[in-house]
Amino acid sequence: MATEKVKAEITGKVWKIVTQPGQPLQEEETILIMESMKMEIPVVAPVKGTLKAILVQEGQDVSEGQELAIIES
Amino acid sequence: MAFEKYIEEHARRTKKALEMGGADRLAKQAAQGRLNARQRIDYLFDPGTFLEIGMFARGEPREDWDRTPADGKVCGYGRIEGREAAVVSHDITVKSASSSPINVRKMGQVRRMALANGLPLVLLNESSGARIPDTMGAIGTGTLGQDPSQFIRMREIPYVAAVLGPAFGTACWFTQLSDFVVMRKDAQLAISSPKVTEIAIGQKIDPLELAGWRMQAEVTGKVDYGVDTDEEALDLLKRFLSYLPSHHNELPPRTAVPPGADEPAQRLLELVPEDRAKVYDMRKVAAAICDPGTLFPLKDRFAKTAFTALGRIDGRTVGILASNPMFKAGAMDPDSCDKATTFLVLCDSFNVPIVILADTPGFLIGVEGERRKAPGKVINMMSALQMCTVPKFSIVMRKSYGQAYLNMGGTRNTDEMLAWYSADVGFMDPNVGVNVVYGVKREDDPVRFEELKQEIQRDSSAYDLAGIFSAVAVIDPRESRRWLARLLEVHQRRPTRGIGRHLLGGWPTTF
Question: How far is A21 from chain B (nearest CA, A)?
Answer without folding.
Answer: 23
